[in-house]
Design a protein that fits this description.
By secondary structure, this protein is α+β, with helices and mostly antiparallel strands. The chain has 8 helices and 4 strands, in the order ααααβααβαββα.
Amino acid sequence: MLSEILTQSTSYSLSEFGTIIEEVIHKGSEKIYSSDIHSYVSKNHDLERDMQTKISLQRKFFNAVQKTQTSSLHLITEAWCLDACIILPLLKGITIANPSIDIRLYLRDRSEDLMQLFLTNGSKSIPVAFGLDKKGQEVFRWDLALLKLKKS
């Protein structure tokens, strides 16, 4: 079921997602985000760029990413979501450590069927990340909302 929904869903590479953000910031594009959301997209982009200059991958993490059986990593996100934007520098680091991992991003508000598989207590909380092996089997799932609940 997941593999069918993934093939039917529109996904973006990190580069394509970056282009969406750049078009919002520099051209005021409303192709995906309405103008009332643009300030959030812009602020999150500034934060992400700042984090990108400060992040460094520890050797242990770098080595684990190189050896992983995960062949694709999927993130359900939105450019206006602060929690989601802080993950982008990590994803860019993963592509450096292991360029063979296919990273795909899905916009929550345009991927209803996919989002329905990853509801958190019935809500559409993002970000949600999950990895698949070469056979398309889920090997991990990470959800920030669930992490917050576990800490409470």
